Amino acid sequence: MSGSREQILARVRAALADVPSGEHPPDVEVPRDYARSHGRGGADTLVDRLEDYRAIVHRVAADALPDAVAAALQRRGSRSIVVPADLPEAWTATWTDEIGGGADMAAAGAPVLRDDGDGVGLGLGLGALDAVDGVVTGCAVAIAETGTIVLDGGEGQGRRVLTLVPDYHLCVVRADQIVDDVPDAVARLDPRRPLTWISGPSATSDIELDRVEGVHGPRTLEVLIVG
């Protein structure tokens, strides 16, 4: 073992032989000319991948989004949901009206709970999040080739915990947020932000490959692709 270690260290010393003592090795330019996509992206591919992951997917027009949100929550039988503090109120307005809540009920904190957490803590506690029927958010980017939705805690997304505790996640993806492949997504994302990569509902398998859903996140993922 020590012989192998010495061989490795010797190669490192040889590679740094021309570097003056006390100085860092010069920066090495890494070529980035690899293919960023394979030309198989777009909304159709995203829908196919999401459905393969057992997510529920609908494509809707922008002006039909509030009705689509309401329809999804009604199918689910939801009576209460949590949303990020900055989620557009129009997204859930049709639903609150249809279940008899309206603006007054929403303003009182039910059936729509708005989380004002700052990403570190605060906001709604785990008990409140566990008690709601689901969460509605937007996203940062969606990757067609892998069927992956990425959240970065930005506008309309809220804290990471919002999409990990409730059993149902309804996510809105705009057409302009869809990219072909992972390199395209990485180019749009800020690595300093808290990134959550979602590929279908939460699921795992035991040694016999028996699938279990809802272990470390929502059991059901529903996606509305707008545009």
UniProtKB/TrEMBL annotation:
- The superkingdom listed in its UniProt entry is Bacteria
| InterPro entries reported in the protein's UniProt record | FTHF_cligase-like_sf, LUD_dom, NagB/RpiA_transferase-like
Q: What range(s) does the LUD domain occupy?
A: 131-226
> What's the protein name?
Lactate utilization protein C
The organism is: Nocardiopsis gilva YIM 90087
